[in-house]
Amino acid sequence: MRAERPGRFNTRPTLEDIRRAPKVLLHDHLDGGVRPGTVVDLARESGYGDLPTTDPDALRAWFAESADSGSLERYLKPFSHTGGVMQSVEALTRVAYECAEDLANDGIVYAEVRYAPALHLRAGLSLEQVVEAVLDGFARGRREFGIRVGTLLTANRNQARSMEIAKLAVRYRDDGVVGFDIAGTEAGYPPIKHLDAFEYLRRENAHFTIHAGEGFGLPSIWQAIQWCGADRLGHGVRIIDDIEVDGDETRLGRLADYVRDKRIPLEMCPSSNVQTGAATSIAEHPIGLLHDLGFRVTVNTDNRLMSKTTLSEEFAKLIEVFDYDWDDLQWFTVNAMKSAFLPFTERLELINGVIKPGFAQLKWNRAHPSA
Length: 371
Description:
The active site is at 214 (proton donor). Keywords: Hydrolase, Metal-binding, Nucleotide metabolism, Zinc. InterPro entries: A_deaminase (IPR028893), A_deaminase_dom (IPR001365), Ado/ade_deaminase (IPR006330), Metal_Hydrolase (IPR032466). Catalyzes the hydrolytic deamination of adenosine and 2-deoxyadenosine. By secondary structure, the protein is of the alpha/beta class. The protein has a single domain (15-367), classed as Alpha-Beta Barrel (TIM Barrel), CATH 3.20.20. It has 16 helices and ten strands. It has helices spanning 15-20, 36-46, 56-67, 72-76, 79-84, 89-105, 127-145, 162-171, 195-203, 218-227, 254-261, 270-275, 287-292, 311-322, 326-339, 344-367, and strands spanning 23-29, 108-115, 148-156, 177-183, 208-212, 232-235, 243-246, 249-252, 266-268, 297-299. Helix 9 links the parallel strand 4 and strand 5 (208-212). The longest helix is centred in the C-terminal third of the chain and has 24 residues, at 344-367.
């Protein structure tokens, strides 16, 4: 347990407290957070007959058990079912709308949700139709629930469509697409294979993040930053391999030192990282050390369905293990808002107008329960 910090607010937030806190989510996959009941409905409507079960509760358990595999490759396999039912405009719009509702109900005020448009073309949709359907769902969600959601268009590492998706992200960046991402199996598919797409995005002053340091080690992080110019790192867990702890002394290697000095955000997803084997447990997750060393760490869900989690539950696990308090919760949240792919003034408005006042009110309520 850590020593008390001067002025530390001592009351540990409960899960209900965390749900009420204004939070920010940067790493969440649209096809990894579909409601099980929606998967069943969409499968029935579309004629998709490959689900392991049509009972929503049993299906929820199946997704979590299948994803809890110990490797990134096996973790990704259940996505064939959620992706399989998201092949129409109506399905994509519904999933995006429900995603916005679920995130808003968890107290999230701003989120960036990513998906791979190329995975939703099997029924004849165009890339543009996919993007517009998702944007429509999130726009309706914003009108009804007040949550703002920016989308990230993801290209798959093992496909040759990254330039096409990058251009799509630039085309729709004034309509709600805030950036680009590349994901999929890391081993054997380094980000430099898509260097032309990243060079194009930089020329267009567009934002992008790269999945790196999850299923592969330091070389993927180094390439994502130094060759490709990533604004953020998706996961980045293996940066811990460049940090040596010897008793009370901690030494950072050149890459880790660079990541910290440049304030490169790490989109960490604790439960998912344990499921894929990137971390052995929540207690042993590198987020604890990286937080203490002052890295730009953010907390995320990755895939709410597969990891059977919410952002509030991710925070609750970290609070339980690392004895985090309100100040830590706010620190992670401000980190995420600072790192969002929104214009500076809009980020500042959310930090100073929503996040900090929201946390201040929650702290005051806990300190004065009878007021």
